[in-house]
């Protein structure tokens, strides 16, 4: 059995949320990281992904399954149990994701400055009101 996922695995200010590099939808990279150490149940994934709704988590899991990055296994027990696990293809993303996360951490301040400048109308960036 895997160790429980930490509720604070993804801080609200985590560089993964700031990174302009996306692996699938907004949540896909974080889901992949949650599955890094083995299979997880839906309810386990909700712990560190506290900002995600059940509907969006379901959609993200289906998208990852469709793309061959995760597998879904339903166990026929008294109470049905479903687990999600990285496929070899999904596991092959862990290296590139680690590189992207390290890049975002190195450029954290620059990314924050760029986003702040974009949001500030006087900067000349951003959308016209």
Automatic annotation (TrEMBL):
InterPro entries membership = HTH_HxlR (IPR002577), WH-like_DNA-bd_sf (IPR036388), WH_DNA-bd_sf (IPR036390)
Query: Which keywords has UniProt assigned to this entry?
Result: DNA-binding, Transcription, Transcription regulation
Question: Which part of the chain is the HTH hxlR-type domain?
Answer: 14-112
Coiled coil ranges: none
In its keyword annotation, does this UniProt entry include Chloroplast? no
- Classify the source by domain of life: Bacteria
User: What Gene3D superfamilies does the record point to?
Assistant: Winged helix-like DNA-binding domain superfamily/Winged helix DNA-binding domain (1.10.10.10)
Q: Name one Pfam family in it.
A: HxlR
What are the GO MF terms of this UniProt record?
DNA binding
What PANTHER family does the record point to? TRANSCRIPTIONAL REGULATOR, MARR FAMILY, TRANSCRIPTIONAL REGULATORY PROTEIN
Protein name per Swiss-Prot or TrEMBL:
Transcriptional regulator, HxlR family
State the organism of origin: Streptosporangium subroseum
